[in-house]
Specification:
Blueprint (H helix, E strand, L loop, with lengths): L2 E4 L8 E6 L2 E7 L5 E5 L9 H4 E4 L2 E4 L4 E4 L5 E3 L8 E7 L2 E5 L1
Antiparallel strand pairs: 1-10, 2-3, 3-4, 4-9, 5-6, 6-7, 7-8, 9-10
The structure holds FE2/S2 (inorganic) cluster.
InterPro entries: Rieske_2Fe-2S, Rieske_2Fe-2S_sf
Keywords: 2Fe-2S, Iron, Iron-sulfur, Metal-binding
Organism: Sulfuracidifex metallicus DSM 6482 = JCM 9184
Length: 101
């Protein structure tokens, strides 16, 4: 079942964890209508990206071992792993977003 998040629950530039059963989904709000949802677990060694992740331009950088992931595709661009960061599709539902987990 998709996860629903109220847009007003998250501020511009903020990243926040939402639980979806066992999964932790990290929702990042970049402003405008740009919401990004990723798995909160770094695919390298599992650091929690709400604590270790920093967003710089179009990348999410896990500071555990400094892997840079593309925020649009999840592709690791440089760093410690070749594993892809899981990115979930986000649908605009007016006052809410729907994350396809
Ligand atoms: S756990 Fe994220 S880069 Fe190693």
């Amino acid at each position: 079942m998709p996860l629903r998040v109220r847009k007003s629950d998250i501020k511009v530039g903020e990243k926040k964890v939402f639980k979806d059963g066992e999964k932790e989904i990290l929702v990042i709000y970049l402003g405008g209508n740009k919401f990004i949802a990723v798995n909160n677990k770094c695919p390298h060694l599992g650091c929690k990206l709400d604590k270790t992740g920093v967003i710089i331009r179009e990348e999410l950088i896990c500071q555990c071992h400094f892997t840079h992931f593309s925020l649009s595709t999840g592709e690791p661009r440089k760093g410690a792993t070749k594993k892809q960061l899981i990115i979930y599709k986000v649908n605009d539902k007016g006052d809410e977003i729907e994350v396809e987990t």
